[in-house]
Each structure stands twice: as structure tokens, then as C-alpha cells.
Amino acid sequence: MAKETLTEAIAVAKAPEDTVAKKSSSFVAWIADKGIFVFTAILILASMTFVDGFASLQNVTDLFHRAAPIGIVALGMTFVVITGNYLDLSVVAQAAAAGVILIAVSNAYNLITAFIVAFIVAIIFGLVNGIAVGYFKANAVIVTLSTTYIGLGLLRLLSGGSQVFGPFDGPIATFGTSKLGPFPYSAVVLVVVTLILTFVLSKTNFGFMVRSFGVNERSTRLAGTNTGVIVIGAFLVTSMAAMIGGFVLAAFSNTAVSNMATGYDFQALAAIIVGGTSVFGGKGSVPRTLLGVVFVSILSNVLVLSQISYGWQQIAIGSLIVFAVTVDALGRRVGKK
Amino acid sequence: MTIPVIEAKNIVKSFGGVRAVDNVSVSVMPGEIHAVVGENGAGKSTLMRILAGVETPDSGSVEINGTAIENSAKASIDAGISLVHQELSLIPEMTVAENIMLGSFPTAGGWTKTREMKNIAADTLKEIGVDVDLDERISRLSVALRQFVEIARAVARKPKVLILDEPTATLTPAETDYLLDMLERLASQGLAIIYISHRIPEVFKICKAVTILRDGKLVTSESIDKLTPEKVIDQMVGRELKLDLSQRRQINDSGDVVLSAKGIKAPGVNGIDLEVKTGQIIGLGGLVGAGRTELIRAIIGADMKSAGKVTITSNGKKQVITGYLSAIRAGVAYVPEERRTDGLALGMTVAENIFLPNRKEVSPTGVMPKSKIAAFAKGLSEKVSLRPPQITREAGQYSGGNQQKIVIAKWLGRKPAFVVLDEPTRGVDVGAKAEIHKLVKQLADEGAAVLVISSDLPELLELSEIIHVVRDGQIAGTLKGVDATEKSVMSLAAGEKLVGA
Hints:
The complex is a heterodimer. By secondary structure, chain A is mostly helical. Helix content of chain A is 78%, strand content 2%.
């Protein structure tokens, strides 16, 4: 029997087995898909009941304020994850570069120049990552690990590795401490970025191609799309979000330094995966990432409020990711047709 | 009387609803070279995989020297069955010696005994008469030498039965002769050899007995003396029925040339010219591995070509095809061989799959108009009679035939000038098959130039007005009108020159 016919036949033959598997472990598939909603609800209820000080307006706004920079980065990185290219590690360098440029360049020249320089740097990061991964099919983890190194190295050389401070009464400092009603500006930016990226991913041709590419790269290419451009676009979205995240982070304390975004790569991935976006690509959404950000932030917040040491927080987040990716992989296996 | 060294009894194997092997019994004597022949999909490879223990039969048994063996790869190897796979399974980064001994490294306390390993490998190569450096990496060897190393690997296990699945598919005539001599020598030492080939002349050269399979069933298993090449081909094809010529498409040569491909070379394709005109359906016949898929993928730029020029003329504009995207822009629609991986995103809805190639037309602003997309997808899925026409269902939830209709629907939206279909109805039920045939004919009648690859001979004959038969990456012959029959296509494809029209 011909090889191709055999493949086809096996694919057909496997269908009934999978249906059986689905019955026995459809719970896992359900958790992978809907778990985040349930877990977030339980976490909020439990925190409100058992943790003193959690349910105060002050604590909630504080929580969003703090979650904003990493949340914005994660929202953008969702695009890269949905293409099936794992993640963009270089957000660590990108956010720090944006923060340092924002403060250092606006000290030396002015705010507009700082925005322009940061924008150009973000475009370069997105293009380099995107071209290497999208056109040359290089592994995203290795490429972005390397561009992180290059970025941090350049930043260290240019800034001398030292912390930069903005003027106390400058627009950056003002932005970092101002509120719209009860909501800090940072949280407002988080919501606005969520709305924009949700629209881009779910309602535009570009967002559609990103999802289609993530579901099936081959069929998407054969349908007549330029897949290189799709991947570059996803990395550019991530770069833009990392830039905005870096701005917001720098504005918090009116300072910036090259290592200010250390850990953002992993934390962003944590939020994305916990939100239910699949690391295998195709499945996921921007609001899910926002929910993931909320979940991880509340968890950290509760651990802090309960005066549990940072070591335990790390262990908790790490375990959460292992759980989430395992459920993702299992859910994919049983949910596959 | 000697007993057969290997005997398969009443083997049955189904995939899904399809009986790939249907109650087949075969036995081979020591020292016998036994051919197993049949069309693509006749069940040959499945049967061999069952003998090798890598596939489990639904029923039936395999006996070695009269004793039934367990069905597992290990049991088969231990019993002395060695299978040389159709696809090379060597590890390119390892040496010849390491590959020959792979899976049977001589070891002592967990350490590989390198010297002994090399000795056994050297002896084996000597035995089959192949001269190749033991320390050379496989990646540096020619395809033919790799094939011989693959055989050495099977022989090194001192098998009682050696199974070769299309071993000459990638070899030149001289290399083929060498291989055939080697097999005869091995057989003269008492080895039983099961030889699968599409090439009838080879079978008559070395084999003592022939088993013919058709649609998973045993047609005959007898001594070669009682057969002629013509008889073998007749029995492989089976269907004696003459196709009703009035049903055949009339040759329509009056249209304008849409596709012109000249001197196409690519891996597996050795210089092919092809032309398709408006309103024509041209068929590409040939065996699996003859280079048909490679040819069309090179023509439309889905894979790189090493030489040749392709132009597509649509709406009076002649465009040179430089890559897949330029082909799509020039009006190509490609229905690929592997619809589950290449044709559709199974995890996306029907509407999404249809939208993808039509996004610029349906959503010119870049913001997707939901209701317009729905109406567009609905219209096309009704046109191809998708059942049920629920455009919000995932493509993966549809049957094979309906999935193929979705693939066709998504291209219909672009009103393509040149349509390429690779095995359009494989794994599709009879009803959907007829509907797909109707759609293909309709496309041509509406003025598209159509190129169809099919291993399904009745389908190829029904759809195409001209059939080019591809063999070894070249066009072995062109058949039309009364000359095009299952037999003539098969003869050309198998390289059997005895049969004329």
C-alpha cells in the first residue's frame, strides 16, 4: 500500500481511538480551555475571604498599578506565542531599553525625541527577531536569547550601566503618580493596550493570519500568505508592547536601569500560559492573557500580604507554569481530532 | 518436501472502514525470490509491515518454518525477518559501520565493542559485494550507496527472510542490475527474498514466483513460468471493463495557453515541459514516487526548482512565476495531496478556511467584516454542496470528502485561471467523489486550465482529456483518446515496453 494512502488510512483509523481518549480525559481538555476562569474566580473569592487587606480599593488599584508594565509586555508577546514560536525572551532588553531611553534621552533632549528613539529601537528589535525567525526559520528561543544579550550589552555600553533619574517635576514623574478617578494611569494604559490588541488579533486580517499561521503553518502558506511577514508582524507587536511596558515601568519610579526588566520574559510567558493560550500556537487570545496577568498578580499579591517569603513566591509561580503547560499539552493531545 | 520459510496465513487488516489487506496468504520457500506486485494502494506495504511486526493485523498469522510468531517488531527480527524500508531509515550523521550495526551493537558491559562492530560490518559489506568506507558518514554517500548500506544493515542480522520494498525506485539502470545480481546471489545461498516492485521487467528477471494484490485482495500467487508481463499488468489492474468512451472528455485544444512550463528540473524531476490551455483537463499519471507531486510543486513555486521557466497567462496578462506567492497572484489554485496538513487548518472553522485566500477581496480594508465573510463562505460552501453547510463548524469535524470540498471552495472564490489538484479524491467516499469530479469538470467548462494528478486510474481516465505518464521524473509518454486505457497508463508507468495501446 502506498505510503501516502497509508498515512491517510492511519489518520482515519486513529479517529475512534481519540474519541475514547477524549471521553476519559475530556476533563483535562476542559481545564486547559476554561480552567483560568474558574481558578481566577476561586482565587479572588478565597483571597477576599481569607486575606486581610486584599479587598480594599487601595490594594486593588495598587495591584493593577504594579501589574501594568509586565501585563502590557505579556499582551504583546501573546502574538508571538500564538504563531507557535514559543516566546520573545528579548522583551527583557526591549523594555529596559525603552525605559532607559525614555529617561536619558528626555533628560538630554526632550520627551518627543525620547519617544522617537525608543520607537526606532523597538522597530529594530522586532525586525531582527522577526526576520531571523520568520524568514530564516531560526529557533525563536535562541534568537531572542541572543538579541537580549546584544540589547543589554549595547544598553550597558551606552548608559554606562548606571541608573538614570528623571527630574522630580517632569512629565514622566507626573504620569507615574497620576490617577484617572481611582485608577492609576498605568492601569488605564493596560486596559487601552488590551482593547487595541484584542481588536488587532480578533478583527483584522493581520490578526487572523497570525492565528491561522499558529493553527497550521503549512496550509496558511499554501493558501497564499507571506508567512515571513506574519511572523515579523507578531514580533513587531511584541516590540511595541515591550516598549510601552518599559515606559510605564520607568515612569513608576522615575528611574531606569539596564536590568530593570529582569524576569519579564518568564513572567510574561507565565501570564500568557496561565491564561490558556497554547504554547503550540493557534489557540489563545489577548483577553486571556489579561486574565492570566490578573491571576498571577493576585497570587503574588496574596503571598506578599500573607508575608510569605519571596522564595516561596518563586516556587509557587514556577509550579503554576509546570501545571499550566502540562495541562496545555494534555488538553491538546486529547482535544486533537 | 521442504516447508516454506515464511508463511502468512489469512491476513486481514483494516484502516477505518477500508480493508487494506483482505484475507491474503503468501508463502515463500528458502532460496526463492518472490515478487509482490500491485497498484498503488493495493496493500503491499501494509502486508510487509505486518510480516515485519510493525503493524498488527486484525486477524491471521505469520509462521516461520512452520511455527507461528508473535506480532511485534522484536519477535519478527528475532525470527529472522528483515525489512528494508521504502523510505531510507539511516542516520545521516553516523558512519556506515554504525548504521549497519544500529540496534545490534556488539557490547561488553555497556561499552560498544568498536572493533567487533567494524568487523561484522565489513564482513557484511563483503558478503553483498559493496565497497564503501566503513568510517564514511552516510550524509556523504550517494542515494544508491545509501540504499546498499540499508540492505547491508538488513543482511547483517543474518535473516532468513529479507523483504525489500521498492529498492530500485531511486537507482539507475546500472545500479539496479547490480542490486538484482546481488539478490540472486543471496538467494542462491538459501535466503528467502520478498521483492516488492512496480517494475515488471525486474520481476521477470529475478523472481521465481509472483503474488499479485489488488484492492487489498489476493489475485493470484503462482510460479513466474505461468505468467507473462502482460498478464501480470492485466491482473494488477483487474478491471477489464472498457471505459465508455462517450463519457470521456472530448479533447479541447482550442483554448489559449494558460500554463507553460519548460525544462522543469527539481529534486525528483528531470526536465519536463508541460502546457495546459483554458478549458482543458490534463492528467498526470504514474506511480507514487515518480515525481508528479514534485513536478507540480516546482511549477507553482511551492518548492524550489533548479531549472526551468514557468509562465501563467490569465486575463490576457502573461506572468513569469518566480515563487509560490507570485503563482497565487497570477491565478493559481492548489489543492494539495495532504489535505489534512496542507489543504486546511483543521482547527479553524469552514468560514475561516475559506476566508484566508480570499481575504484581500472580502476584507479590503484589513478589518474583517463579519457578516460579509459569513455570506461569502456560505455561498461557496453551498456551491460545492458541503454537507452540512455549517460554516462555523471546525473543518476537522467534517469527513474527508467534505474537507476536500472546503479546500476547493476556498479557491473557487478567487476564480482561478489554473487549478492544480493532487490526488483530489483519495480517502473520499463514492458520493463525494462524484461531486468533486463534477466540480473539477465544471471548473474547466467555465474556462479554467486544470491539471490533475491521480493514482486512481478510472478517475484519471474519466477526468482528463490528455494524460501524461510520469516515470523517474520524466514524461514517459502521452496518451489521449482511445489510446488512454488503464493498461496503457499502467504499462508506461511501470516501464513495461511490451504493451502498446
